[in-house]
Design goal:
Blueprint (H helix, E strand, L loop, with lengths): L2 H28 L3 H4 L5 H4 L8 H12 L2 H9 L24 H4 L8 H8 L8 E3 L11 E6 L5 H9 L5 E3 L2 E11 L10 H11 L2 E7 L5 H15 L5 E6 L2 E3 L1 H9 L3 H5 L2 E6 L26 E10 H11 L8 H11 L5 E2 L3 E2 L11 H6 L2 E3 L3 H12 L7
Parallel strand pairs: 2-4, 2-6, 4-5, 8-10, 11-12
Antiparallel strand pairs: 1-5, 3-4, 6-9, 7-12, 8-9
Helix pairs in contact: 8-16, 10-13, 10-14
Cofactor: Mn(2+)
Pathway: Protein modification; protein glycosylation
Family: Belongs to the glycosyltransferase 31 family.
Length: 398
């Protein structure tokens, strides 16, 4: 028999054996019960899970368990499966009641600042009344939504932004909308009563969003989560979002020009900023970003500095969904990085974002600002000085 024919016969025989095996397996699967096809893990299996001693990590393990689709499938098919004991330590039924487990589970709780304590006690609460809303601000389906994190007393910063890079309307033939995110100022924080002025500002400019929670550094993460919820309900058709602090300067023209040059694929998955990698929690209690080991263990995922970053509508909506599966963390930009990681994404670094400022020798150079997207930080007076450098066509930067 010729070699070519022998080879063909061998191939046909192997193919026939493969078909027989496939049919046999298929028949067995069809004739086995659901209970036989799904191996229900034993109680011993659940207890193999190593529970973290750090409070945040343990809370995240709990959320990971709750949102695990395989676990939910098994539990839905077999009600006799017992949950591990550590999952029963759930805290108060109302997530907005102070969590009395916290002082007992965090050994150095009493050494923390009052702001950090308050964050931990209310870490599960994500529902706060909205005091000022602008539900129609995105009726025009803006190309770019400028979202500015601010505080009640910062009237001068907000007004400088309105007169410069945050001016709402049409810019470079694109529709731009602006909102300022605010919490509340409580008497315990020793702020003067500014609610009358704030009400006048809200009525005059119609660009304030305010929720009834204590506006502190540790609650910036809460401000992020509440905004994502608001965005998903009130502004899901805005194509792009620039989020920044009220002390950054933004070259809005440069951003619009950049966005118009994106491919469809890059535009959909856009999340850029001044990215920080290979970082972890600071353990010095004297530092602003201090987080003790009793609260969090591990490294931070890549994240964009919270001074400002640019993202697409699609990513914002996905972040809203992911945020429900990530425990609030006391540093807002790290938290956003955690939510991106939950989606299997990471922010892209862009040299136009300078959240750690630029060299001193270049700070008064108009042409430098023409090439950048965002610089941190600038005073209201500096914003008013820089903006004409951006919009005046007679400036020659060749």
């Amino acid at each position: 028999m010729p070699a070519a024919r022998r080879k063909l016969c061998m191939m046909m025989m192997m193919f026939s054996i493969f078909i027989c095996v496939l049919v046999s397996v298929s028949w067995n699967l069809r004739h086995r019960s659901v209970q036989e096809k799904i191996r229900i893990p034993s109680q011993r299996f659940w207890h193999q899970h190593v529970v973290s001693e750090s409070f945040w990590n343990k809370e995240q393990q709990r959320l990971d368990f709750i949102f695990n689709p395989i676990v939910n499938f098994v539990l839905s098919r077999n009600s006799l499966v017992e949950l591990p004991d550590w999952l029963n330590d759930t805290g108060p039924l109302d997530p907005c009641v102070p969590d009395d487990r916290v002082p007992m589970q965090i050994l150095d709780y009493n050494s923390l600042t009052q702001g950090f304590k308050d964050f931990l006690l209310h870490m599960r609460c994500r529902t706060y009344p909205m005091l000022i809303n602008q539900p129609r601000i995105c009726d025009g389906k803006p190309f770019l939504l400028l979202v500015v994190k601010s505080q009640i007393p910062h009237f001068d910063r907000r007004q400088a932004i309105r007169e410069t890079w945050g001016r709402a309307g049409v810019l470079a033939n694109r529709t731009v909308a602006t909102v300022f995110l605010l919490g509340n100022a409580l008497p315990v924080d020793h702020f003067p009563d500014l609610l009358g002025m704030l009400g006048h500002e809200a009525e005059l400019h119609k660009d304030l969003l305010q929720w009834d929670y204590r506006d502190t550094f540790y609650n910036l993460t809460l401000k992020e989560v509440l905004f994502l919820e608001w965005f998903s309900q009130n502004c899901p058709h805005a194509q792009y979002i620039l989020k920044g602090d009220d002390d950054v300067f933004v070259n809005t023209l440069r951003i619009i020009d950049f966005l118009e040059g994106l491919s469809e694929m890059k535009a959909k998955d856009l999340f850029i900023g001044d990215v920080i990698r290979d970082a972890g929690p600071l353990r010095n209690p004297k530092l602003k970003y201090f987080v003790p080991e009793s609260v969090f263990l591990g490294q931070y995922p890549p994240y964009a500095g919270g001074g400002g970053y640019l993202l697409s509508r699609e990513i914002a909506l996905r972040l809203h969904n992911a945020s429900r599966q990530v425990v609030l963390y006391p540093i807002d930009d790290v938290y956003t990085g955690m939510c991106l990681k939950k989606l299997g994404l990471a922010p892209d670094k862009h040299s136009g974002f300078r959240t750690f400022d630029i060299e001193v020798k270049n700070r008064n150079n108009p042409c430098i600002y023409r090439s950048l997207m965002l610089v941190h930080s600038r005073t209201p007076q500096e914003m008013l000085t820089i903006w004409p450098w951006i919009i005046h066509p007679e400036l020659d930067c060749q």
